[in-house]
Design brief:
- Its main location: membrane.
- This protein is α/β, with parallel strands linked by helices.
- The protein has a single domain, classed as Rossmann fold (3-Layer(aba) Sandwich), CATH 3.40.50.
- The protein contains four helices and eight strands.
- The protein has a six-stranded mixed sheet with strand order 4-3-2-5-6-7, with helices on both faces. A two-stranded parallel ribbon has the order 1-8.
- Strand 2, helix 2 and strand 3 form a beta-alpha-beta unit.
- The longest helix is centred in the N-terminal third of the chain and has 16 residues.
- The chain binds 1-O-pyrophosphono-5-O-phosphono-alpha-D-ribofuranose, hypoxanthine (HPA) and magnesium ion.
- The site of hypoxanthine has 6 residues, from strand 8.
Length: 165
């Protein structure tokens, strides 16, 4: 198992700003969303911010786990699917939200469940990008995004001495 070469640490402030930027882009679509489907667990945070901004009150979860061993992607497991009611008509006018798309595998599984839904992620890597309709920032495939809910305050090594971020 090897760590991606580059690190992209995201603070709570920055994540809130980026999730809001995603909401602005989605608002620009000028659409009325019937419901939001949030991909747990990472999608829970942007979902809370975006549904507040867009006035969406019907929130469903789809529970997918794939990264069992940190950066190594394991077997995909759908722990909880989407209600039959929301799956009717292929998920038209439903907004799917996740924190990021990396290889695009998680997005592909959920898209299969809701082929007519709109897929939004805050961050996207090149492999996953074709799977998303709207995103805010693209980072390279060899970058690991460190989310604020996975981090704490620690001493930072100076860059000249090998500090990563
Ligand atoms: O495009 P992919 O290569 O499929 O990777 C993206 C997915 O990986 C992470 O979730 P993870 O499965 O680690 O679970 P979590 O959201 O519970 O942290 C992230 O939140 C995305 O859902
Ligand atoms: O870059 C990432 N950061 C955090 N979780 C992830 N899950 C897949 N890729 C990533
Ligand atoms: Mg996830």
């Amino acid at each position: 198992m090897s760590l991606p070469e580059k690190a992209f640490p995201v603070s709570w402030d920055q994540f809130h700003r980026d999730a809001r930027a995603l909401a602005w882009r989605l608002a620009g679509e000028g659409r009325e969303w019937k419901a939001m489907v949030c991909i747990t667990r990472g999608g829970l945070v942007p979902a809370a911010i975006i549904c507040r901004e867009l006035g969406i009150r019907l929130i469903e979860t789809v529970c997918v786990a794939s990264y069992h061993d940190y950066v190594e992607q394991g077997q995909m497991v759908v722990i909880k699917g989407i209600s039959e009611e929301l799956k009717a008509d292929g998920g038209r006018d439903i907004l799917i939200v996740d924190d990021l798309t990396d290889t695009g595998k998680t997005a592909a599984i959920v898209r299969e469940m809701l082929p007519n839904a709109h897929f939004a992620a805050v961050y996207a890597k090149p492999k996953g990008r074709p799977m998303v309709d709207t995103f805010v920032t693209e980072v390279s495939q060899d970058t690991w995004i460190y989310f604020p809910w996975d981090m704490g305050f620690t001493y930072q090594e100076p860059i000249a001495k090998g500090g990563r971020s």
